Structures are given as C-alpha cells and as structure tokens.
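Query structure, 215 tokens:
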C-alpha cells in the first residue's frame, strides 16, 4: 500500500516510471552522470566510460524493475530518482543472472564485477545499521551530464521529498563525494558516518533525512 501511494503521487505529478520501453534511456542517464564518480573510478580501474556504465545500469535496472520506485522527468530520462521502500529484499545472484549479468561479467571483466560486489556487501552492512524500521532507501538521484546545473531534476526531487514528509517517512542514502554531502545537507540530510570503501581509498558517507516535523 505504501509503495502504491508513492507511485500514485509521482505519477499524478506527471513523472514517468521505469519500464521496459524506457529502460535504456534510464540506464544512459546513469551512465552519463556517473563518469568520473570516485566509486566507479575505483571499481572500473579508472577506465570507466559511458558505454560500460550504461551496460552496467541496464542490468541493474532490470533487476530493480519491480523492487524499486524509479521515476524520471520523461521517457528521455533527463533526471531520475530511485527509491526502495522498507522491507524490500536485496537482489539475488539468480536475479542478476536472469537480467543479463553473465554477459556483463564477460564484457566488463571479473575484477570490476567483484569490486562492485564487494562494495554492495559493504553498503548492505551499513543499510542494516542505519536504514531500519520504516526508513526508505534512497538508491539514486541523477541528471544527464548535458542537463546538470539547469534545475531539470528539482521538481522530481521536491515531489519525492514531499511524499516522504506527508507520510512521515525517513530516508537513508550513501555517497562517495564530499560535495554531495554538502548538497544533501541543504535538503535536510544529516551525516551519520564517514568511512572508506574496503580495500580502496574511496570515501564513503552515510546520511539520513527525517521527515519534516518528525523525529
């Protein structure tokens, strides 16, 4: 019921949900936005490029098609947001394989995939620590590189935060950029923990936002 309420809220605002038709555009958004991101520079041995990132997120979004609420400003996915409601289980290895993970493994290489898997295990341990109870998990908010700095994603972001506040829901996120900590801090997220991705020099920040008027 909670998920449908968020889904209806964003749909009523005119945003478009991830589906099989717009999947590639959503993945291209992430592929564009994450070039140069510290976590993926490490995972991809600084050989990260939009094509590899798009392949990676195509598989990722296939596995998340029914487990997340992922919306964009339009089918072109200029900006997108992805959230996971409380109690939704993690993607299994079999889910990943069915979504094309074997092909990705062969294309990108085992070393890169293993680094991503190691990061996911680390991230999951922190989610279990901080994203508890009725807290939502903020998977991502990205804007295609050509639209960044133009306010394209502001209505989508505001609508999602509006729903969380109306329904008294906390939301948790993680980031690998100090600049993002400052940005999210302006929107009510508080820093919970600063660490480092294991076996790397990549910084890692855990943040949480309580609903306005909540505790």
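Result returned for the query:
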């Amino acid at each position: 019921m909670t998920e449908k309420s968020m889904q209806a809220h964003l749909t009523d605002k005119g945003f478009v949900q991830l589906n099989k038709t717009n999947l590639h555009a959503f993945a291209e958004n992430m592929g564009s936005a994450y070039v140069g991101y510290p976590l993926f520079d490490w995972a991809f041995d600084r050989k990260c490029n939009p094509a590899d990132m798009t392949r990676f997120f195509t598989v990722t979004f296939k596995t998340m098609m029914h487990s997340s609420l992922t919306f964009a400003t339009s089918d072109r996915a200029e900006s997108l947001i992805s959230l996971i409601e409380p109690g939704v289980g993690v993607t299994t290895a079999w889910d990943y394989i069915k979504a094309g993970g074997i092909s990705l493994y062969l294309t990108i290489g085992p070393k890169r995939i293993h680094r991503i898997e190691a990061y996911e295990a680390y991230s999951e341990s922190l989610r279990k620590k901080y994203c508890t109870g009725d807290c939502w998990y903020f998977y991502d908010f990205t804007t295609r590189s050509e639209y960044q700095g133009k306010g394209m994603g502001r209505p989508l972001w505001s609508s999602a935060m509006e729903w969380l506040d109306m329904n008294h829901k906390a939301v948790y996120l993680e980031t690998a950029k100090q600049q993002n900590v400052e940005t999210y801090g302006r929107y009510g997220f508080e820093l919970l923990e600063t660490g480092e991705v294991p076996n790397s020099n990549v910084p890692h920040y855990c943040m949480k936002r309580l609903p306005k008027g909540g505790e």
